[in-house]
Amino acid sequence: QAQLVQSGAEVKEPGASVKVSCKASDYTFTDYGIIWVRQAPGQGLEWMGWISTYNGNTNYAQRLQGRVTLTTDTSTSTAYMELRSLRSDDTAVYYCAKKGSDLEFDPWGQGTLVTVSS
Amino acid sequence: QSALTQPPSASGSPGQSVSISCTGTSSDVGGYNYVSWYQQHPGKAPKLMIYEVNKRPSGVPDRFSGSKSGNTASLTVSGLQAEDEADYYCNSYAGSNSWVFGGGTKLTVL
């Protein structure tokens, strides 16, 4: 049973950067891409971006272009999401998920709360 | 990349059926058979319920079904049970390795 385990909660000041990790287990990491999704408090899901774990190709949501970078470390089966120039409206729970061969997202990580506050 | 349109709320009594719509455009829902649905209980991560419009992952009850017509997809929950009360999100592939979510629908079991 594939599993994704994310890093712990973070508190950052406005203007700082945050890097969230997502460690995969029980499947071949490089066979499936990883997507990142965030959810602001009381709000819906927002797709942030996708990374190919095979060759590192990426695609980002337009509104986050220039501030977000997705990377992977295939030696440890870990994906990373870095968000820079943090603002208060970046406060959210950030999720990673495995992108299946039918373009479905399953499973999901447990989520990482990032709080941006001075 | 505009969000797909879902009704903010839906409700039904135990045992009844309820459908949730998800409207997009020909660039997402209408253009691909890659619509999926996710269930989210408060404080939990989303869970895949339907993929490729109408396929159910193993372990998801057959009370959950999906369909699509044109630019609108739908999730139907039959024989409503108390544990079905949750938020539901649709998602569609939008081409070039991009995806878009719906705004979410809060399903209440009366």
Overall description:
The complex is a heterodimer of chains A (118) and B (110). By secondary structure, chain A is an all-beta fold. Chain A is built from no helices and 11 strands. Chain A has strands spanning 3-6, 10-12, 18-25, 33-39, 45-51, 58-60, 68-73, 78-83, 92-99, 105-108, 112-116. In chain A, strands 2, 4, 5, 6, 9, 10 and 11 form a 7-stranded mixed sheet that branches. In chain A, strand 4 and strand 5 form a beta hairpin. The radius of gyration of chain A is 13 Å and the shape is globular. The model of chain A has no long low-confidence stretch (mean pLDDT 97). Chain B is mostly beta strands and 110 residues long. Chain B has strands at 9-12, 18-23, 35-40, 47-50, 64-69, 72-77, 86-93, 99-101, 105-109. In chain B, strands 1, 3, 4, 7, 8 and 9 form a 6-stranded mixed sheet that branches. A 3-stranded antiparallel sheet of chain B has the order 2-6-5, with no helix packed on it. In chain B, 36% of the residues are buried. At the A-B interface, strand 4, strand 5 and strand 10 of A face strand 3, strand 7 and strand 8 of B.
Q: How is the topology of this model organized?
A:
The complex is a heterodimer of chains A (118) and B (110).
Chain A: E1 3-6, E2 10-12, E3 18-25, E4 33-39, E5 45-51, E6 58-60, E7 68-73, E8 78-83, E9 92-99, E10 105-108, E11 112-116
Parallel strand pairs in A: 2-11
Antiparallel strand pairs in A: 1-3, 3-8, 4-5, 4-9, 5-6, 7-8, 9-10, 9-11
Chain B: E1 9-12, E2 18-23, E3 35-40, E4 47-50, E5 64-69, E6 72-77, E7 86-93, E8 99-101, E9 105-109
Parallel strand pairs in B: 1-9
Antiparallel strand pairs in B: 2-6, 3-4, 3-7, 5-6, 7-8, 7-9
